[in-house]
Design brief:
By secondary structure, the chain is an alpha/beta fold. The protein is about 45% helix and about 15% strand. The chain is built from 14 helices and twelve strands. Helix 4 crosses helix 7. The longest helix has 27 residues.
Length: about 450
């Protein structure tokens, strides 16, 4: 093949689409397949940038999909011509006549398949009790999600459930966690968890189609919750110098949330952001409830220490936990989680750095109900019965793990500082005073 393979492929596709339009399907099929061969040769043997190769591959997939539809049509010997972009199947409409099945539109299927890879349609297992504090936020979410599903007759006429709720606050305060608790408690709802980056495509016109298809999927599976994390990156304020594609995404998002021409009953859009002040004013208005998820208070921080410790063996008392709660003013839930995770590693470090071990009594690792008296635990060199050895010399089933104590917690706390700065807290407080409510 000559060096001008790519141009040859483009010429073949142009002819193929022309024949397709003129209903010469067999010739169109031959040309599509021929064109794809040339495109693949161009990718393999002609110098192309990575971006160009990606673009060609995407085109090849589209042409192969269309060729497959034509092949099915020709093989099935169908009498009725098929429209380019359709799969050739028809169904009866309400009047009994044949009509093309919009649900089988390959464009739509392609978008929904792309979304299916990005969206986590899940049933999390996080109860309200797993979320420390945030009582007002929980009540607002119950009002928006749980009650309308359980008592639909309560929400008739002008009493309508909230359609859009924005959770805003500093990073690491449990906004995403709270959204998962909503999904667990609304146990017959479909939970769509999607990040803004999943809805932004580099292909012209595709991003707004992804947004539209996301809402269509939610309508098909309602009651449903669409949770969009970092919603600010999708819907920041419109400006003169922004790209045309960014403007179109926002417009589509506004149209879908407003529900113009669409039935949005049974759909809740739940957004989360750390920087709510960058949201477009029109988008902000669509989120009817804007709930501030603040840094946890002392009692909530104490509860977070308990939750993060779980069933790991430790010697901390209730008083120790309250002390840790009071020492961590300004820490987010995520900060506390990291403090505890680091403290849980302290026993591992003790084992790793120990130069002496001593024999102790304890439960057998393989048979917990059996007590054995030749387990080994790390100790200081001056301890009675200390044997000079390192962890390398300890048999795997003979190690007794040191339990986590208050000293481990305080060592971890000394190295882990809060991650939320005062300037961001000031801006969040201003936004709450102007537009939000306390969570």
């Amino acid at each position: 093949m000559s060096g001008n393979t790519l141009q040859k492929a483009i010429d073949l596709v142009t002819k193929a689409t022309e024949e397709d339009k003129n209903k010469n399907y067999e010739e169109a099929l031959r040309l599509y397949e021929h064109a794809v061969e040339y495109f693949l040769h161009a990718i393999k043997y002609e110098a192309q940038s990575d971006k160009a190769k990606e673009s060609i591959r995407a085109k090849c997939i589209t042409y192969l999909e269309r060729a497959e539809k034509l092949k099915e049509y020709i093989k099935g010997g169908k009498k009725k011509p098929i429209k380019a972009g359709s799969n050739g199947e028809s169904k009866k409409d309400s009047k009994g006549s044949d009509s093309e099945d919009d649900g089988d539109d390959p464009e739509k299927k392609k978008m929904q398949s792309k979304l299916s890879d990005a969206i986590i349609v899940e049933k999390p297992n996080i109860k309200w009790s797993d979320v420390a504090g945030l009582e007002a936020a929980k009540e607002a979410l119950k009002e928006a999600v749980i009650l309308p599903i359980k008592f639909p007759h309560l929400f008739t006429g002008n009493r309508k459930p909230w359609r859009g709720i924005l959770l805003f606050g500093p990073p690491g305060t449990g906004k995403s966690y709270l959204a998962k608790a909503v999904a667990t408690e609304a146990n017959n709802s479909t939970f769509f968890s999607v990040s803004s980056s999943d809805l932004v495509s580099k292909w012209l016109g595709e991003s707004e189609k992804l947004v539209k298809n996301l809402f269509e999927m939610a309508r098909e599976q309602k009651p449903s919750i669409i949770f969009i994390d970092e919603v600010d990156s999708l819907t920041s304020s419109r400006s003169d110098n922004e790209s045309e594609s960014a403007r179109r995404i926002k417009t589509e998002f506004l149209v879908q949330m407003q529900g113009v021409g669409n039935d949005n009953d049974g759909i809740l859009v739940l957004g989360a952001t750390n920087i709510p002040w960058v949201l477009d004013a029109a988008i902000r208005r669509r989120f009817e409830k804007r709930i501030y998820i603040d840094l946890p208070e002392a009692h909530a921080r104490t509860h977070m220490f308990k939750l993060n410790l779980g069933d790991t063996p430790h010697s901390l008392t209730e008083e120790d936990l309250r002390d840790l709660g009071s020492r961590t003013d300004g820490y987010s839930g995520a900060d506390i989680s990291i403090v505890v995770r680091d403290a849980l590693m302290q026993p591992v470090r003790k084992v790793q750095t120990a130069t002496h071990f001593r024999k102790v009594t304890g439960s057998s690792r393989n048979e917990p109900d059996t007590v054995v008296d030749d387990l080994l635990e790390p100790c200081s060199p001056g301890t009675r019965g200390a044997i000079e050895m390192t962890w390398v010399d300890v048999p795997g089933d003979k190690l007794k793990e040191p339990i986590v104590d208050m000293g481990d917690m305080l060592r971890s706390l000394a190295t882990q500082k809060p991650t939320v700065n005062a300037a961001d807290m000031k801006r969040l407080d201003e936004f709450r005073n102007d537009f939000g409510q306390d969570g």
